[in-house]
Amino acid sequence: MMREPSMLVRETAAEQLEERQSDWAYSKPVVVLDIIWNFAFVAVSVGVLLSSWEERPDTPLRLWIIGYAFQCLLHMVCVCVEYRRRRRQQSMEYRPFNAGEEGILSPGSRVDSEQYVTLAQLEEDSGSGVAKHLESTNTMLSFIWWIVGFYWVSIGGQALARTSPQLYWLVGVALYNFSRF
Questions:
Q1: 20 to 30 Å CA-CA from 6: which of 34, 107, 134, 143?
Q2: Can you say whether residue 56 is alpha, beta or left, with left for phi > 0 and alpha for psi between -120 and 50 degrees?
Q3: Residue 159: which of 46, 50, 45, 61 has the closest Cα?
Q4: 177 and 149 in contact (C-beta within 8 Å)?
Q5: Nearest to residue 127, comparing CAs of 85, 97, 91, 94?
Q6: Cα angle, residue 13 at apex, residues 12 and 14 outer, rounded to 5°
Q7: Which regions span the lipid bilayer (predicted)?
Q8: Any idea what DSSP says for residue 114?
Q9: Is 132 exposed, middle or buried (0-12, 13-18, 19+ CB in 10 A)?
Q10: Which residues does the chain have with pLDDT short of 70?
Q11: Closest CA to 161 of 58, 84, 92
Q12: Are 143 and 172 in contact (CB under 8 A)?
């Protein structure tokens, strides 16, 4: 199907704008801070779970902490996969086109408004698609898990603060930090 040149230009401009807006989230400093932040929560969670072994909360706060730590680990994996994919894609886009190079076109080159894609690029995009869907699912589950944690802390109230102070405060801090984002 042939598209009008102006439509193709608009679609390309919209794609580039969207890509630039999402690029800041996958810049090296932001990715490093995100990984450190999530790793810190996982490390603190392990420490609190080990040091609070004697605490006996009425609600399953340990389960909530383990679930949230798992979501943090999953988020870190998804961010790393997407960061690596974007770095590979950027390095391929800036590579100059050489027509004698096994007849393969670079990702940004076009011939008669058609874009040719190698098998490696298709596999890479499908892997990235899985990571994006997994991150999307993880985000939705995190929101639901936040509601569950908020409910458990709310119904436990001050009794939890007395019987299981370390678990209570860790869940409270995690809920507060999650609600700020």
A1: 107
A2: beta
A3: 61
A4: no
A5: 85
A6: 90
A7: 30-51, 63-83, 143-161
A8: B
A9: middle
A10: 1-3, 19-25, 93-128, 179-181
A11: 58
A12: no
- CA atoms of 104 and 26, how far apart (whole Å): 28
Q: Which of 57, 35, 37 is nearest to 171 (CA)?
A: 57
* Cα 32 to Cα 21, 25, 28, 104, 109, distances in angstroms: 18, 11, 6, 34, 32
SS3 at position 108: coil
What does pTM read for this prediction?
Answer: 0.67
Q: pLDDT, tens digit, for every residue of 23-54?
A: 666 788 889 999 999 999 999 999 999 999 99
For 167, the enclosing helix (H) or strand (E) is helix 165-180
Burial class, 78, CB count within 10 angstroms (exposed 0-12 / middle 13-18 / buried 19+): buried
Q: Measured on CA atoms in the order 170, 171, 176, 181, is the torsion positive or negative?
A: positive
Cα 105 from Cα 118, distance rounded (Å): 8
Q: Tokens for 117?
A: 């894609």
Residues with Cβ within 8 Å of 148's Cβ and at least 6 positions away in sequence, in order, are 64
Report residue 114: phi and psi, to 5°: -110, 145
Length of the chain in residues, anyone?
A: 181
**Main-chain dihedrals φ then ψ at residue 74, nearest 5 degrees:** -60, -40
